[in-house]
Specification:
This protein has nine helices and eight strands. The chain is α+β, with helices and mostly antiparallel strands and 260 residues long. It has two domains: 96 residues, no CATH class; 133 residues, no CATH class. The strands form two sheets. The chain has a five-stranded mixed β-barrel with strand order 1-2-3-5-4. A three-stranded antiparallel sheet has the order 6-7-8, with no helix packed on it. The longest helix is centred in the last third of the chain and has 17 residues. The N and C termini lie far apart (40 Å). The mean pLDDT is 97. The protein binds adenosine-5'-diphosphate and magnesium ion. The site of adenosine-5'-diphosphate has 18 residues, from strand 5. This is Aminotransferase class I and II. InterPro entries: HipA_2. Keywords: Aminotransferase, Transferase.
């Protein structure tokens, strides 16, 4: 179960990404990287961050702890940056945050960073499963912290949820974008990763994760219908994709054979 903390101090924006996440201090004195509900990508980015992040964790990958963070109207009210004040105003209420990993560095093959085969293979399988295109050389979203790999930024995963008509088609898709995966060259055990993943994931694991997504994030737009229907849709996507995993597993193996 995700904990809930209260934001107490806006520390600094993280300007690499487009969504203007920020380092924020909370009432437990921890520092968090906050993904704001009011950012341009909208609440579905937080939905993807939560669902994909917790699936990654269930697969045994290191994902920084995810928490809900309550933002009140006072936070950053006097920040000199208009864009930041606007973002905070639009995000009053519940947001999602990750434990901040101080002193972490971005994984960089050019600096001779390497990944263990088992983790690289599971990461390739995981990103294919959740249709995450954001783990590439130009956009690694992979941190090194105390010599271990940490997987961040899953806001672009599960992109079928921007077009629900595509649910069944996306659940079956081979995910050819895997050819650009940052860790593909180290992923020499993709078949083993699939076997392991099939032991770890199932409908009740997915349902327990989906139960934690706030209703309001699931139906951000008028006419979206009700949250329970949306939750059932995610559950159908995830279970169908797990059943169809041979397709994207074979695609990942094929993409790797062309690379190494
Ligand atoms: N948990 C974390 N600990 C330390 N740094 C982080 C953490 N999460 C994100 N960052 C830093 O903030 C940057 C932006 O965060 P990210 O989640 O990738 O958001 P965006 O959607 O803007 O790309 C990352 O590239 C990384 O440098
Ligand atoms: Mg990013």
């Amino acid at each position: 179960m995700l904990r809930t903390v209260q934001a107490t101090r806006y520390v600094t924006p993280l300007r690499e990404g487009g969504s203007l996440p920020a380092i924020v201090e909370a009432d437990d004195l921890g520092l968090y990287v906050v993904k704001f509900r009011g950012a341009g990508q909208g609440p579905l980015a937080l939905v993807a961050e939560l669902i994909a992040g917790e699936i990654g964790r269930a697969l045994g990958l290191n994902v920084p702890e995810l928490v809900f963070i309550e933002v009140d109207a006072g936070l950053g009210r006097n920040d000199p940056d208009y864009e930041i004040r606007q973002l905070l105003q639009a995000s009053v209420g519940l947001n999602l945050a990750l434990d901040y990993l101080p002193g972490s560095t971005m994984f960089d093959p050019a600096a001779r960073d390497k990944a263990p085969a088992d983790q690289a293979s599971m990461a390739v399988w995981f990103d294919s499963f959740v249709t995450n295109i954001d783990r590439t050389a130009s956009n690694p979203n992979l941190l090194l912290w105390h010599k271990a790999l940490y997987f961040i930024d899953h806001g672009a995963a599960l992109y079928f949820h921007h077009n629900w008509q595509s649910l069944d088609q996306m659940a079956q898709s081979a995910f050819p974008a895997v050819k650009k995966h940052l860790l593909l060259r180290w992923a020499s055990a993709i078949r083993q990763a699939e076997t392991e993943a099939k032991l770890k994931l199932n409908e009740s694991v997915f349902a327990a994760i989906l139960d934690q997504v706030p209703d309001a994030w699931l139906v951000p737009n008028a006419g979206d219908g009700d949250a329970a229907t949306r939750r059932a849709g995610y559950l159908r996507f995830l279970t169908e994709r797990l059943t169809a995993s041979a397709s994207f597993t074979e695609e990942a193996l094929r993409a790797r054979s062309e690379l190494v």
